[in-house]
Amino acid sequence: MSVWEYIVDLFVNVRTDWIEWLQGFNLASSLIILLDSLIGIILMLIFVFPIVIIFIWLERRFIAWMQLRPGPNRCGPFGLLQPIADAIKTLIKELIMPAKGDKLVHWLAPVVLFFSGLMLFAVIPIGKGHLGALADLNIGILYIVAIGSLSVTAIFMAGWSSNNKYALLGAMRAVAQLVSYEVPMVLSIVGVVLIVGSLQMSEIVGQQSYPFILVQPLGCFIYFIGAMAELNRSPMDQIEAESELTTGYFTEYSGMKFATFFLGEYISTLAIATIVTTLFLGGWKGPFLPVWFWFVFKVFAVFLVILWMRATLIRVRIDQIMAFSWKFLLPMALINIFITAAEVLIWDKWMSGWESFPWPFIFVNWAIAVVLILLWSKIFFKLGGGRVEVGEVRPGYSQGYGADLQAPVS
Asked: What is the DSSP string of 158-178?
């Protein structure tokens, strides 16, 4: 094998050489699996943490560029050392614990959030074959759905253990918002599962001779918007609403525990970007260049879209967020399932199968997605999802504070 061929699929080749080296010692298979898991975890951390640090720097510089301001530019060239300086500053700050809070749960909450994001990378394939993922489970989609929902538990633990009304309100908002958006997110993945016929992440990437975003634009849109709500990213960051809840569920956190929450959110953002890349953008597939390059390139492209939305859209109200999930995303996710199921039956019965290029459905599905989004937006506003209804002025409330908020609607 040439040096270039080795570099093209670096993750898989390193793991393969490691396993072959262990087998040369005639070790027990269970011990080989354990040691292989250890080297896999190390490689995963080498992949995750540097990219998270770059994400933190890139978010500040990219949004500053979009808002016509310099951003961090003092620590190192182009401010590259700013995330490290912030980390050192955070680590030396005092750890504050509410006097009447639950100390154990208060300590465990950021740990659970951190590892719930980190565990998602176990089934993400960043190379070819079954060694391309740390654990190539045949139920990879179910694993992602199950582990991803642990963040709700961590956030509620943080809010409840803080013994603070603002933290508790933020936690309750989190439970309502995250559970609500979990439903359309899971339904949006069903379209991909119907096309592939498997829940295995490596199989999903293997069958993408074309990126599935071409035939699942509506599913990709629903999953991405739902992920924005799951990540508490603008414009759907009402869980942390500083103007209302003084940062919400982690109001009473400081120092290392606050930094763990901060790091956990960025790790979850990276995880969502890798999932979108795997399900809808062809994963590691790409011409000429190494597979890990294409994977990282697509992940950064998704992250830049997330930053673009944060820099351009204003925060929406909590009632609008909830209505958007149940009255907008959920119906469209159900429609997408029926359309995809019908197309799979048509393609398998009268055409050559989904392994060929389904160009007729690409045009049809994009047209359906555009029409549905435009038409359903009008229906959504008619259902009251985009405005607050204000009633008639009651006697005695025409003067004084709040009178302007209670004026009759013309």
From this structure: HHHHTT-HHHHHHHHHHHHHH
